[in-house]
C-alpha cells in the first residue's frame, strides 16, 4: 500500500497538524495571560479610582476646613473690631483682663489653624505619593499589556500564516491523493482484498473470542482441579497421620505381644522345669516294689479301668481342642481384599481381641496342666504311701513309673502340653507375620 500513498506526505501532514495544535495551545495560553493581565489592570484601575475619589474627598475637606478657618478669622477680626470699638468707646483704655482674653483667643486660634494646616499638608503629601506610586504601577502594567498585546498580535499573525500554509499543504496533499486514487486501476481488486482481510480479521477475532472462552473454561477447570487436589492432599495428609498413628499402635501392640510371648515361654520353661523336678523327686523317693512287671502291668490295667477311661476321654477331648484348630477358625483372609485404613484399624482391633482370647485360653490351658500335674503328684504320693513295705523283687523305679498308667498319662499330658505350646507359638508367629504384611501394605 505504500506505493499508492506517500508515507512522507502523510508524515508531513501529521507534523503540520501537530504544529497547528501546539500553536493553538500557545494562543490559548497567551489568551489566558492577556485575560489575567486585563483583570490585574482592571483591579489597578479600580484602586486608582478609589484613590482619586479619596483625594477629591480630602480636597473637599481641606476646602471646607479652609473656609471654616477663614470664617473663624473673619469672626475673630469682627471681635477684634468690636474690641477696638469698645476701646475707642472707653476712651482708648483697655483693661488687662480684656487684653489677656483677646490674646489667649488669638493664640488658640493660631495654634489650631497651624496644627490643622500641618495635618492637611501631611495628608496631601502622602496622598500625592500614593497617587504617584499607583500612576507608576499603572504605567508599568500598561506597558506590559502593550507588550502582551504585541506578542498576541504577532502570534495571531504567525498562527494565521501557519494555518494558511498547513491548509494549503493539506489541500495539495489531498489533490495529489485524489489524482493517485483516480489513476488507480486496481481499486476494485484492492477493495475485494480489503473485504477479504476484514473477513479474515473478523474470523480471527471470533477465533480469539473462542480461544479466550476456552481459556476461561480451562482456567475454571484448573481452579476446580486445584481445589480438588488440595482436598486430596489434605485427605492424604490425614491418612498419613492416621497411618502413622496405626503404625505406632501396631508397634505398641507388637511389643505387648512379644512381652506376652516371652512371659508364656517363661511359664512353659518353668512348668517343664517343675515337671522334670517332679519326675526326679518321684523316682528318687519311690520305694522298690517286688511285684513282676507283668503282674504290675495287669494289676495296673485292671485297677485303672473306670477312672483311666474317663481321664483318657478327657485327654482326648483336650487334645482335640488345640489352638491350631482355634487359629484355623479365627483366620481372616486379609490378602483377598485391599483394606482401607479404617478397615485395617477394625481388623487390627479384631486381631487384638482374638490374641487376647488366645492368650486367655493359653493361660487357662497352662493352669489346667499345672493343676493336672499337681493332681498327678498327689496321686503318686498316695500310691507310694499305700504300697506295702516288703515283698517281691524290686523293680526299676523309672521303668515302673513309665509302664504304669499314671506314667503313661503324665507322658501323654506332657506331649499334649508341648503340642499345645508349639501350636500357640506357631499361631502367634503367623499373626505377627500377617500384621507385618498388612503394615507393609
How would you describe the overall organization of this protein?
This protein has 441 residues and is an all-alpha fold. It folds into two domains: 7-184; 245-440, no CATH class. The chain has helices at 7-89, 96-182, 187-285, 293-303, 305-320, 323-329, 341-386, 397-403, 405-440. α1 runs antiparallel to α2 (96-182) and α3 (187-285) packs antiparallel against α9 (405-440). The protein starts with 6 loop residues before the first helix and ends with a helix. The model is unreliable at 1-8, 288-339 and 389-399 (pLDDT under 50).
Observed structural traits:
441 residues; mainly alpha; 2 domains; coiled coil
Summarize the entry for a quick read.
With 441 residues, the protein is mainly α. It contains nine helices and no strands.
Could you give a short account of the major beta sheet? none
| Gyration radius from CA atoms, angstroms | 71 Å
Q: Helix and strand succession?
A: HHHHHHHHH
Q: Outline, from the CA principal axes?
A: elongated
The poorly predicted ranges are 1-8, 288-339, 389-399
Mean pLDDT: 70
Quantity of strands, as a count: 0
Overall tally of domains:
2
Structural class: mainly alpha
Strand proportion: under 5%
Secondary structure elements and pairings:
Blueprint: H1 7-89, H2 96-182, H3 187-285, H4 293-303, H5 305-320, H6 323-329, H7 341-386, H8 397-403, H9 405-440
Helix pairs in contact: 1-2, 3-7, 3-9, 5-9, 7-9, 8-9
Amino acid at each position: 500500500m505504500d506505493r499508492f500513498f506517500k508515507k512522507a506526505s502523510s508524515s508531513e501532514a501529521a507534523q503540520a497538524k501537530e504544529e497547528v495544535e501546539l500553536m493553538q495551545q500557545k494562543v490559548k495560553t497567551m489568551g489566558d495571560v492577556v485575560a489575567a493581565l486585563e483583570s490585574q489592570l482592571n483591579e489597578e484601575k479600580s484602586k486608582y479610582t478609589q484613590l482619586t475619589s479619596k483625594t477629591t474627598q480630602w480636597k473637599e475637606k481641606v476646602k471646607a476646613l479652609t473656609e471654616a478657618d477663614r470664617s473663624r478669622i473673619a469672626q475673630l477680626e469682627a471681635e477684634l473690631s468690636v474690641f477696638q470699638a469698645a476701646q475707642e468707646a472707653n476712651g482708648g483704655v483697655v483693661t488687662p483682663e480684656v487684653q489677656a482674653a483677646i490674646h489667649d483667643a488669638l493664640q488658640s486660634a493660631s495654634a489650631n489653624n497651624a496644627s490643622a494646616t500641618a495635618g492637611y499638608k501631611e495628608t496631601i503629601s502622602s496622598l500625592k505619593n500614593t497617587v504617584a506610586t499607583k500612576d507608576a504601577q499603572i504605567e508599568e502594567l500598561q506597558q506590559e499589556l502593550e507588550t502582551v498585546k504585541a506578542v498576541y498580535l504577532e502570534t495571531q499573525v504567525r498562527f494565521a500564516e501557519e494555518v494558511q500554509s498547513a491548509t494549503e499543504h493539506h489541500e495539495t496533499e489531498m489533490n495529489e491523493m485524489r489524482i493517485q486514487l483516480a489513476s488507480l486501476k486496481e481499486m476494485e481488486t484492492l477493495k475485494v482484498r480489503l473485504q477479504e482481510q476484514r473477513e479474515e480479521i473478523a474470523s480471527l477475532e471470533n477465533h480469539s473470542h473462542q480461544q479466550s472462552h476456552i481459556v476461561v473454561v480451562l482456567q475454571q477447570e484448573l481452579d476446580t482441579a486445584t481445589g480438588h487436589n488440595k482436598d486430596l492432599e489434605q485427605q492424604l495428609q490425614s491418612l498419613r497421620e492416621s497411618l502413622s498413628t496405626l503404625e505406632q499402635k501396631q508397634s505398641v501392640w507388637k511389643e505387648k505381644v512379644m512381652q506376652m510371648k516371652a512371659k508364656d515361654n517363661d511359664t512353659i520353661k518353668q512348668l517343664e522345669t517343675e515337671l522334670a523336678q517332679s519326675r526326679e523327686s518321684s523316682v528318687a523317693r519311690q520305694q522298690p516294689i517286688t511285684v513282676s512287671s507283668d503282674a504290675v502291668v495287669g494289676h495296673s490295667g485292671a485297677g485303672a479301668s473306670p477312672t483311666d477311661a474317663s481321664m483318657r476321654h478327657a485327654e482326648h477331648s483336650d487334645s482335640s481342642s488345640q489352638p491350631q484348630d482355634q487359629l484355623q477358625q479365627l483366620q481372616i483372609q486379609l490378602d483377598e481384599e485391599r483394606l482401607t485404613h479404617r478397615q485395617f484399624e477394625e481388623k487390627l482391633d479384631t486381631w487384638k481381641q482374638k490374641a487376647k482370647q488366645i492368650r486367655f485360653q493359653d493361660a487357662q490351658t497352662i493352669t489346667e496342666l499345672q493343676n493336672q500335674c499337681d493332681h498327678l503328684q498327689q496321686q503318686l504320693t498316695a500310691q507310694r504311701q499305700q504300697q506295702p513295705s516288703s515283698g517281691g523283687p524290686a523293680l526299676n523305679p523309672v521303668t515302673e513309673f513309665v509302664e504304669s498308667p499314671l506314667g503313661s498319662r503324665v507322658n501323654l499330658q506332657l506331649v499334649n502340653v508341648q503340642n499345645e505350646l508349639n501350636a500357640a507359638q506357631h499361631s502367634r508367629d503367623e499373626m505377627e507375620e500377617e500384621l507385618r504384611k498388612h503394615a507393609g501394605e
